[in-house]
Design goal:
The structure holds two protein chains of two kinds. In chain A, 73% of the residues lie in helices and 0% in strands. By secondary structure, chain A is mostly helical. Chain B starts with a strand and ends with a helix. Classes of the chains: A mainly alpha, B alpha+beta. Bound molecules: adenosine-5'-triphosphate and magnesium ion. Chain B: GO terms for molecular function: ATP binding.
Chain lengths: 301, 361
């Protein structure tokens, strides 16, 4: 099957002159990538799977003892870990829903003939291009209780966004929404501009109102690409570390990856943290899988 | 249901002019066919009437009201778009129901079902009703898109080449169906086509569009027998009218470069047909006949057998002209024949402007 896809080599090409067949050219491109992936991704993945069944601590010289599923059992019975998961879930839902609303909304506004549309789109994309750490530090200043511009603008006095246990998680989510709505906007814009104009014309002729047109034509056609945006953003939000770590140290905003970081590099429970990392990985995979199944259903419709 | 008027409409796209000084009057309940070559501006005209496009100049009236500020919905037209525009992801039935379902003017379910079924029967797509529209053939899509127009009872039906993707048999059947529908409903139809046979067989009135101008409007009979200029003469009719350069000398048509003469009696009817004026003589192929004693000799260049008749291409000097003769006429290629024309049916055009002398007045 694979070999039938390979076209026969043009006898007069330079590659042919050097005695390279199509297959060897293919290998030349693929093998370095595959090697790279194996050394830096696959190998650590398997290695850490091994550690997750031991009580290994990277800070001591004590040999690792095999403890079977003990780490997993402990973690899944630990109410603190579960509360971290609950916080993460809340964060993911708020942040992804926010990005979806803002991103799609802005895309709807941009998807018409307006002057300087290109420039506007580019400017709106900027937050996404900054580094997470920079955004974190930057928003920390904006949120600052005494001299932050947000309190100044909203007239909130010295409200402590990031130290308030109730507010901290929302503040982080808000920053994430600011940073990643442009991503959803970009994908939505691609989806919206792919809806043929004549469909809107046909709907106007059929005397469909704006809501009817939106729910019967626009949304069904953009839904698959919106789903893809949701998948990406859910995966990323689930793994959020740097933004939350820089912005706040409130336990009410301790996402699962921060818990994982503390376990691994502050408490040096290397084996157990490997197990937690695997639990997170499986969860992300499971959620993504559900989405992908749903996406395929949406596409089929 | 509605009387449509276009007054002095012009439409430009950037620096490209699609329509110039277009006047059109479509009476209530009329089946009007707009005929023109590709790029003539037919679709643009329809879109202007539907309200999808704004004229650069001029006005559109529906029932005497200037509709410049009305959107497509308010104009209450049904438009079959050239590119079908079916709603993807929906079934054929859902597509047909679409115009009947918006909340504000939602009909009772039984009524919707009844209208959809009736349209499907007319268009012979009953077996496709539950199929998704992206699994249809071109001709099927086209019929669904006609269906979406005829489930409604709009003020005007606008159809942009709605039969172009169908095979000959189905096209003929649907021509009749659409025509019947129009007569039943007494609806105003504006039907766009580049197919002159369609225009001739369906239209109460035909408007010929050339490069964004209406060249002639009239009944199919007028357009066919009394074309306003050489463009209409050569565009309408298959095979088209023969156009031969020449002039009148003492009641005879003398073909200048070709050196043959034919008797001409109709000259009196057309004023301005003075002797010696450079003219173009137009004669339909069916008004050219072969006869042993006829005045001009020609050779048979080509024979097309169409069953009931034969279309001969005759060669005189190095020019050719077409003649339609009964199928039983026995001719062979390169055979020498003699022909004449029916002088009453000859149309005279001015050589310079191409306009028929009858129309100049
Ligand atoms: N949106 C547009 N922008 C620029 N030019 C246009 C546009 N729409 C139409 N035109 C031009 O206007 C002219 C008339 O176009 P129109 O679509 O009305 O032709 P038509 O008679 O419908 O042709 P066809 O039989 O091929 O459909 C064409 O030369 C076309 O290139
Ligand atoms: Mg067209």
């Amino acid at each position: 099957m694979a070999t039938t896809m390979i076209t026969t080599l043009d006898r007069s090409s330079r590659a042919a002159a050097r005695g390279l067949s199509d297959i060897s050219i293919r290998n030349l491109f693929i093998i370095p990538t595959v090697l790279f992936l194996i050394v830096f991704n696959i190998f650590p993945l398997i290695y850490s799977l091994g550690y997750s069944f031991t009580d290994f601590r990277a800070s001591t010289n004590a040999p690792a003892n095999f403890v079977g599923l003990q780490n997993y059992r402990d973690l899944l019975n630990d109410p603190y870990v579960w509360s971290n998961f609950a916080i993460t879930a809340k964060y993911v839902i708020i942040s992804v829903a926010g990005q979806l609303l803002v991103g799609f909304g802005v895309a709807m506004l941009l998807n018409r003939d307006i002057p300087m549309k290109g420039l506007l789109t580019t400017l709106l994309l900027l937050p996404m291009m900054l580094s997470m750490a920079v955004v974190g530090l930057f928003w920390k200043l904006l949120y600052d209780p005494s001299f932050g511009i947000i309190n100044y603008a909203l007239g909130l006095g010295t409200f402590e966004w990031l130290s308030d246990p109730k507010m901290a998680l929302y503040a982080v989510a808000l920053t994430d929404i600011w940073m990643w709505s442009p991503f959803v906007m970009l994908l939505s814009l691609a989806g919206l501009s792919a809806v043929p104009k004549h469909l809107y014309e046909a709907a106007a002729i059929d005397r469909a109102g704006p809501f009817y047109t939106f729910f019967r034509i626009t949304l069904p056609l953009v839904a698959p690409i919106l789903m893809i945006a949701v998948i990406f953003r859910t995966m990323e939000a689930f793994k959020t570390f740097d933004l939350a770590y820089i912005l706040t140290s409130q336990p009410t905003a301790e996402l699962i990856s921060i818990r994982l970081y503390k376990m691994a590099f502050q408490e040096w429970q290397t084996g157990r943290s490997c197990a937690l990392a695997y639990i997170v990985l499986i969860m992300v995979l499971a959620i993504t899988n559900i989405y992908v199944k749903y996406l395929n259903k949406v596409k089929e419709r | 249901m509605a009387h449509i008027q276009l007054k002095n409409i012009s439409k430009t796209f950037g620096n490209h002019t699609a329509l110039t000084g277009l006047d059109l009057d479509i009476a209530d309940g009329e089946f009007f066919v707009l005929l023109g070559e590709t790029g003539a501006g037919k679709t643009t005209t329809l879109r202007l009437i539907a309200g999808l496009e704004k004229p650069s100049e001029g006005q559109v009236f529906i029932d005497g009201v200037d509709v410049a500020d009305w959107g497509a919905a308010e104009r209450d037209v049904a438009l079959v778009l050239q590119q079908y525009s079916l709603y993807p992801r929906y079934t054929v039935r859902e597509n047909l129901e679409f115009p009947l379902k918006p909340k504000i003017r939602r009909l009772p379910d039984a009524e919707i079902k009844d209208r959809v079924d009736r349209a499907a029967r007319t268009l012979r797509i009953e077996h496709l009703l539950d199929r998704k529209t992206d699994r249809l053939s071109g001709g099927e899509m086209q019929r669904v898109s006609i269906g979406r127009a005829i489930v409604r009872k709009p003020r005007v039906f606008l159809m942009d080449e709605p039969l172009s993707a169908l095979d000959a048999k189905l096209r003929e059947a649907l021509r009749t169906e659409l025509k019947n529908l129009q007569m039943q409903l007494g609806a105003t139809f504006l039907f766009v086509t580049h197919d002159q046979i369609e225009a001739m067989s369906m239209g109460d009135k035909v408007g010929v569009l050339n490069h964004g101008r209406i060249v002639q409007t009239g009944t199919p009979h007028e357009i066919y027998n009394n074309p306003r200029d050489t463009y209409v003469a050569s565009f309408v009719g298959s095979p088209p009218m023969n156009l031969i350069d020449g002039k009148l000398v003492n009641g005879r048509a003398v073909m200048a470069p070709l050196n043959f003469e034919l008797p001409f009696s109709g000259g009196a009817k057309a004023s301005g047909a003075t002797d010696g004026r450079p003219l173009v003589f137009g004669v339909r192929p069916e008004d050219v006949y072969l006869e042993s004693g006829a005045p001009v000799e020609a050779r048979v260049h080509d024979v097309e057998n169409h069953g009931v008749e034969k279309i001969l291409t005759l060669r005189v000097g190095d020019a050719t002209l077409r003649a339609t003769v009964p199928a039983r006429t026995d001719v062979a290629i390169e055979q020498a024949v003699r022909f004449a024309w029916n002088p009453d049916k000859v149309v005279l055009f001015d050589k310079g402007s191409g306009v028929s002398l009858r129309h100049v007045g």
